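Students often ask why we bother encoding 3D structure as a string. The short answer is that it lets us treat folding as translation between two languages. Here is a chain of 309 residues written in the first language.
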Amino acid sequence: MKAVRFHEVGGPEVLQYGEIEQPVPGAGQVRLRVAASAFNAADNGMRAGFLPIPIVLPHVPGYDVSGTIDAIGEGVEGFAVGDTVIGFLPMAEDGGAAEYVVAPAEVFVAAPTGVPLADAAAFPSVALTARQALFDDGDLRAGQRLLIVGAGGVVGKYAIALATRAGAYVIATASPRSADAVRAAGADEIIDHTETVVLDAVSEPVDMLLNLAPIEPDEFTALVRLVRDGGVVVSTTAWMPAPDDAERNVRSVVVFVRTDAEKLAELVSLVDSGALRLEVTRRIPLEELPALHAEAAAGRIVGKVIVVP
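And here it is in the second language, the structure alphabet:
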């Protein structure tokens, strides 16, 4: 089968497209005929070797995947050959940048029915990140005030939609380029961070600060003063700690997204109901994945890209 993988960590040039052996599902696993995998920033970090995830080389990237089950291992229940599914794969194992992938059956859920199966690969980890950040790690509740820094990305827009649906008041920072999309997601207030000092623009304390942007540590620390006593700071920027304020009982959490099929199934139901909208920026063939990594490594914004075998 065709796949992209790397035998050593390094720049985008370590990625190789070619033939590898088709995997066979073991006990508790299923094999997927891949419809698409999704590119995420962490794929770049894993390939470059600066994310502390214990992969085994050679490694196939692409931990978000959609496809059709075509083989089932011993002991698997609840799935049948022909089922269309999506999943957030174990990040240390081979991913979906291939024609086929095997993974534990427990990570998969039925795919959304109202969107193309390939596009659904863009959904699992980013939607789970937003949900876990808000509710599992941040304990967001109805009536609370939430400030999202860097809301213009995919996780930010899912976070806005989920938070407003839960009854929170959402203040979002965004650039003019993403302001319309942030407004469409449901933000109650939008701060143009390119023209306005966020500290000056937030008039009342917030219960939660959710940071999704690669801001400077000093700026991040300053923003904590916007959080009420007893509030929480949540961040997805795993390469730096999230500041807290122990004197005011403001705690902090750094989000490391976790596989959770039950929560993912709930999120899929929101897609099917129209409460959440999938976002795909572009679609590329599998053989162009190394070039996409090069774009991202050069600092160019690539958006939400799905990779089709």
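Translate back mentally: The mean pLDDT is 95. Keep this in mind for the problem set.
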